[in-house]
Design brief:
heterodimer; A: mainly beta; six-stranded mixed β-sheet; four-stranded antiparallel β-sheet; globular; B: 116 residues; mainly beta; 52% strand
């Protein structure tokens, strides 16, 4: 079974600053994927970034990067130069590459960007 | 816009009733997943269909059922509704359901169900 832990229920960050959202995971699978999704107040779930367990480099997508530390089982999301539109809930999720393809989600972090 | 469509966007109904939620996956995607998001349970996986066949079940109640049709759209049927079924129901789709970056799940906008 997989488990995702997000220990920061809420964060407040000044606009234009960088922010790190924490995510740790637990799994017995050797091959898996880690995902981050953004859920604005409108409710939709927006895919942000993916990291495979065997990827040698940390994933980056525009202002988003994933600080992947496999030995520590952590997959923190880094948002550079935060914007007001980044205010949202952020969910870390994982799924194994083989077997049940469901996503297991953490409880989320509510990020608020302060102008 | 993820390319996944869900209807209706909002649904208000009474206890004991039955409703059907509809999902159309992204063009080319064969896998459809259903998730429930509630305040007390968070995001929970319900069921996964691949090319018309049920692939995996999560914590889906017996009162709930789903199917995927030959045109790949999917429907989630919720019956004998209870107050606790009020939640945001998401459909997600992916290419094939076999893992890896190419198999990222893209979510629809969700259907917000309110049971009164």
């Amino acid at each position: 079974a997989q488990k995702i832990t997000q220990t920061q229920p809420g964060m407040f960050v000044q606009e234009k600053e960088a922010v790190t959202l924490d995510c740790t995971y637990d799994t017995s699978d050797q091959s898996y994927g880690l995902f981050w999704y953004k859920q604005p107040s409108s409710g939709e779930m927006i895919f942000l970034i993916y990291q495979g367990s065997y990827d040698e480099q940390n994933a980056t997508e525009g202002r988003y990067s994933l600080n992947f530390q496999k030995a520590r089982k952590s997959a923190n999301l880094v948002i550079s130069a935060s914007q007001l539109g980044d205010s949202a809930m952020y969910f870390c999720a994982m799924r194994p590459h083989f077997g049940n393809e469901k996503l297991t989600f953490g409880t989320g972090t509510r990020l608020t960007i302060i102008p | 816009d993820s390319g996944v469509t869900q209807t209706p966007k909002h649904l208000i109904t009474a206890t004991g009733q039955r409703v059907t939620l509809r999902c159309s996956p992204r063009s080319g995607d064969l896998s459809v997943y259903w998730y429930q998001q509630s305040l007390d349970q968070g995001l929970q996986f319900l069921i996964h269909y691949y090319n018309g066949e049920e692939r995996a079940k999560g914590n889906i109640l017996e009162r709930f059922s789903a199917q995927q049709f030959p045109d790949l759209h999917s429907e989630l049927n919720l019956s004998s509704l209870e107050l606790g079924d009020s939640a945001l129901y998401f459909c997600a789709s992916s290419l094939a359901g076999r893992g890896g970056r190419a198999d990222t799940q893209y979510f629809g906008p969700g259907t917000r169900l309110t049971v009164l």
